[in-house]
Amino acid sequence: MSGRREFLRALGTAGAGVLAAQALPSWARAAAAQAARSAPAPAELLVRNAWPEHFETTLDALGRSWLTRNDRFFVRSHFPAPEIDPTTYTLEVSGLVRSPLTLTLAQVRDLPTIESVHTLECAGNGRGLFKLPSTSGTQWERGAVGTAAWGGARLSILLRRAELLPEAKAVWLEAADQAPLSEVPKFLRSIPLEKAMDDTLLVHDMNGEPLSRLHGGPLRAIVPGWYGMASTKWVTKIRVEAGPSDNHFMAKGYRYVYPGEDPAAAPPVEDVKVKSVITRPLAGSTLARGKVRIQGFAWAGPAGVRMVEISTDGGKTWRPAGFMGDTAPLAWRAWATEIEVKTPATVKVMARATDGKGEAQPSQARANAAGYANNSIHVVNFRVA
Amino acid sequence: MWPRRLSLVVAVGALGLAAAVAFTAGDGKATRRGVYPSDFAEGDGRSIAERACLLCHSASLVTQQAKDSTGWEKTLVQMEKWGVAMTAAEHDTLRGYLLARFGPRVKK
Predict the structure, then answer these.
(1) Is A16's CB within 8 Å of B14's CB?
(2) What residue in B sits closest to A213 (Cα-Cα)?
(3) Is residue B47 a contact partner of residue A231, using CB atoms and an 8 Å limit?
(4) Predicted interface score ipTM higher than 0.85
(5) Do B38 and A50 touch (CB under 8 A)?
(6) What's the confidence (pLDDT) of residue A40?
(7) Is residue A266 part of a domain?
(8) Which sign, positive or negative, has the C-alpha torsion B40, B45, B51, B56?
(9) Interchain proximity A28–B8, CB inside 8 Å
(10) Could you tell me which residues are beta bridge partners of residue A201?
(11) Same structural domain for residues A44 and A101?
């Protein structure tokens, strides 16, 4: 490089990647390379799709706290995250009700507020591990899951206020996001009236902060114990209907289509299946010999988690891990145990959770066409030196 | 000559700014890392892929896939149903491009 003029011109017109590769003086490239070597920032979020945003939490980041920090929490959006002006936002409640409602965000925030801790898992979490030949979905591995304290109102309060008619059987939640192409169906999910009246929330806060745009702000649903697609983000319309929606995201999407079975009769994806992840040790890590702590999280749908066991002999024998820390209904449990490794070795550890009905994680979950609900047992290989 | 120290400040500042944009854009401070190629590679069909796919989503949603011919055909038919316009010839070229680059995984 002949001088600063060229360098500044390059700085003004080129992207940083181009700069790093082409325009920087050799000494600056060396300095940048050294900086990159000496202070690598471990990723906390894996960008599986840049837009719409599909971000997965790394197991390293996931394992750091029972409540997942907001900026580390996985993000899954069907369409570009809409910019909603909170001062003009309205929520409509209509359909099979005597008194349709239109509320401002301030009025929604004035409803009796509760804070409830729940685990949210994307239905496609683990899809990438199925290695399917023809699914279009994001190839999530294990981190499309997280736990937060959700602050908001029970949906039942609004529905009671709107006065349900006797024919009411389902609640349709319509979102504000939409695809750039108008022919693409809008995102809409419906839930049975019983679930809507039970523990479903309309939340405007996440871990004590206003719900961010990427996580569905200003208002989203949280349907505890169900996979994440039910917890519609950017909710603007609530319609009470006599039955479930036949929208694309209900009738075709989010169905368990198993090989050889009729797609039209495929059961819907609803309750979360029992699952656990090992967050320490990380796969491929090297630890000192002696006592090695194995820890992670386990969660399930309405049946709850009853136990977690680990195996270090390929699944021949299992021994229980202990639960620890905080608890909340339909939130994951932290678990831990110790193993002793006296000599240098490669260790294979497996964790298996069992739910309250006795359903245990399978070694290999049954693959379905769209790769939903992969709750296969997590296996981690690490080294002891 | 440009003072070496100033150059270092500008260069590191530029890289730092780029890193800040890459790691914090949008929502919070968590460090982020892309997993898949963010651009379509050269080849016959690349321009169709850029025109058709990038209407609604980034390239990485495509570059992370490993589908067989049936899988890619299904995807293209769905996207055309949802409003992506292409001729029959473009459809075939695009399917070939996608299959060649993002075809089935080699079974181990």
Answers:
(1) yes
(2) B27
(3) no
(4) no
(5) yes
(6) 59
(7) no
(8) negative
(9) yes
(10) A154, A222
(11) yes
User: Which residue ranges make up each domain of chain B?
Assistant: 2-102
Q: Which domain holds residue A305?
A: 275-384
B77 touches chain A (CB under 8 A): no
The per-residue pLDDT for range A229-252, each reduced to its tens digit, is: 999 999 999 999 999 999 999 999
Element (H, E) at A162: helix A155-162
* A13 located within any domain: yes
Q: Average pLDDT of B43-64?
A: 96
- Domain assignment present for A325: yes
Q: Do B31 and A44 touch (CB under 8 A)?
A: yes
State which residue of chain B sits closest to A41, comparing Cα positions. B31
pTM greater than 0.95 (yes/no)? no
Is pLDDT at A307 greater than 80 in this prediction?
Answer: yes
What is the spatial distance between Cα A59 and Cα A41, in angstroms, rounded to a whole number?
15
Please tell me which of the candidates B11, B34, B67 has its beta carbon nearest to residue A134.
B67
CA distance B66 to chain A (A): 6
pLDDT of residue B106: 67
CA distance A310 to A317: 8
- The answer to the question of residue A265 being in a domain is no
Distance CA B36, CA B39 (A): 9
* CATH code, A357: 2.60.40.650
- Both structure tokens of A128: 């990438």
CA distance B52 to B47: 8
In angstroms, the CA A41 to CA A39 distance is: 6
